TrEMBL record:
Protein's pathway: Amino-acid biosynthesis; ergothioneine biosynthesis
Pfam entry (one): FGE-sulfatase
Record key words, sorted: Iron, Metal-binding, Monooxygenase, Oxidoreductase
Cofactor annotation: Fe(2+)
Start and end residues of each Sulfatase-modifying factor enzyme-like domain: 175-427
SUPFAM superfamilies: C-type lectin-like, DinB/YfiT-like putative metalloenzymes
Organismal lineage: Bacteria, Bacillati, Actinomycetota, Actinomycetes, Streptosporangiales
Sequence similarity: Belongs to the EgtB family.
Positions contributing to gamma-L-glutamyl-L-cysteine binding: R82, A83, E84, R85, D412, R416
Protein name, per record: Hercynine oxygenase
Native species: Actinoallomurus vinaceus
Length: 429
């Protein structure tokens, strides 16, 4: 398949999922209602996806005029925080559909004419990759919105793929990553974001990192050992959060008849003990790690464990190599796979499930790499640099493979729990 065919195929695949999560999943009131002030009404995400595509693929790449300049402001994430989006005069679901369809048809027409060389924006199809990844990122966000709905829908997919068996014997096991330099970030991945660039050498002391993410069973042991009541384990700001919020379990968990249950897309089920814990915030992950006598990995440690091939002295794009897929990604399973799954997906250090299943909190703040340069706009990453956000790595079961690689960086506030995030631990040697 040539590059333009691949771009068209990926654009179409992303749209199928966006429509499945919105117009095909809910009626009009469901699409325009806000389920949580943390999230947009889904109809906002849908038209925002189209507006971003218009901005970058029709105006910037193909040099076309704005189709509806009056709506740009409504769908600019920086003009209107999520909490105020339901009060905006948004396009209706039907108008949104008509708008995104028109944009898409023009994009597919203009793709024939736009050269994928000659400037950094279109070189190697970068801006198309950016827009495809953007749509997939919103698809994951929209799924998190569905998870927040009390009434479902119970199943967004009639027959999700069956999870693999896993290997709980690996829970809590550690891999040793020897001291020495590795290459962090990338300068040659054509669709990488500015925050992943450029490749630079980082020299790390030796460390241990868990072979699997922390399971629900392990997290429950922390809870039952009084983890939520003991300030010794908590970051001072984390203890403030713990007291102020009153939380004593991951989001969507509740206790009933002496048993912990969780709500998953409108259905309630017993806690699956071998599944990686998800919907914990950074403060909870940090507290668990201290209780376990460990700590969260830095993002450099995570990336070295995930990508470095010490025998070859080179970096891998994916933990298991440069292509193929040995991970639970792309909303196929609709849940994390049990810990110890995907032996073929292990990194060179034998670490499993680094991509997929759950986003993994790291101890690191979100900052630019040495020599960081904004590309192509500062609101993707640069405006978030500083000490407010913690980095998450690896993608979840809800992340599309196009938006997931060993260099990909995600970030969120340390109190956020609606994302599909868990963690693994590390420790000094
Ligand atoms: C990279 C997931 C933090 O959702 O805020 C979507 C991705 N940027 N639209 C976000 C994004 C612009 C971003 N995260
Ligand atoms: Fe966006």
């Amino acid at each position: 398949m040539d590059l333009k065919e691949r771009i068209a195929t990926e654009l179409i695949a992303a749209r199928e999922r966006s429509v499945g999560l919105t117009l095909e999943a809910l009626d009009e009131p469901g699409l325009v209602t806000q389920v949580s002030p943390l999230m947009s009404p889904l109809v906002w995400d849908l038209a925002h996806i189209g507006n971003y595509e218009e901005l970058w693929l029709l105006r910037a790449a193909a040099g076309q005029e704005a189709m509806r300049p009056e709506i740009d402001n409504l769908y600019d994430a920086f003009e209107h925080p999520r909490a105020e989006r339901p009060k905006l005069p948004l396009l209706t679901p039907a108008e949104s559909r008509a708008y995104i369809d028109t944009v898409r048809n023009k994009v597919l027409d203009s793709l024939e004419k736009v050269p994928l060389t000659g400037g950094p924006l279109t070189e190697g199809g970068f801006v198309y990759g950016m827009v495809i990844q953007h749509e997939h990122q919103h698809d994951e966000t929209m799924l998190a919105t569905h998870q927040l709905r009390k009434d479902g829908p119970a199943l967004l997919d009639p027959s999700p793929a069956e999870p693999p068996a896993g290997d709980v014997a690996l829970a809590g096991k550690e891999a040793l990553v020897e001291a020495g330099p590795f290459v962090m970030g990338t300068s040659d991945d054509p669709w990488a974001y500015d925050n992943e660039r450029g490749a630079h050498t980082v020299d790390l002391p030796a460390f241990f990192i868990d072979v699997t993410p922390v399971s629900n069973a392990a997290y429950l042991a922390f809870m039952e050992n009084g983890g939520y009541d003991d300030p010794r384990w908590w970051h001072p700001d984390g203890w403030d959060w713990r007291i102020r919020s009153g939380k004593r379990a991951p989001a969507f968990w509740r206790r009933e008849g002496g048993q912990w249950l969780r709500r998953r897309f409108g259905r309630t089920e017993p806690i699956p003990s071998a599944e990686p814990v998800q919907h914990v915030c950074w403060y909870e992950a940090d507290a668990y790690a201290r209780w376990a006598g460990k700590r969260l990995p830095t993002e450099a440690e995570w990336e070295k464990a995930a990508s470095w091939d010490p025998a070859a002295g080179r970096k891998r794009r994916l933990p298991w190599g440069d292509d193929g897929e040995h991970a639970n990604l792309g909303q196929r399973m609709m849940r994390p796979a049990p810990v110890g799954s995907y032996p073929e997906g292990a990194s060179a250090y034998g670490v499993r499930q680094l991509l997929g299943d759950v986003w993994e909190w790291t101890s690191s703040d979100f900052r630019g790499y040495p020599g960081f340069r904004v590309f192509p706009y500062k609101e993707y990453s640069e405006v978030f640099f500083g000490t407010d956000y913690k980095v998450l790595r690896g993608g979840s079961w809800a992340t599309h493979p196009m938006a997931c690689r060993t260099t990909f960086r995600n970030w969120d506030y340390p109190i956020r729990r609606q994302i599909f995030a868990g963690f693994r631990c590390a420790r000094d040697v």
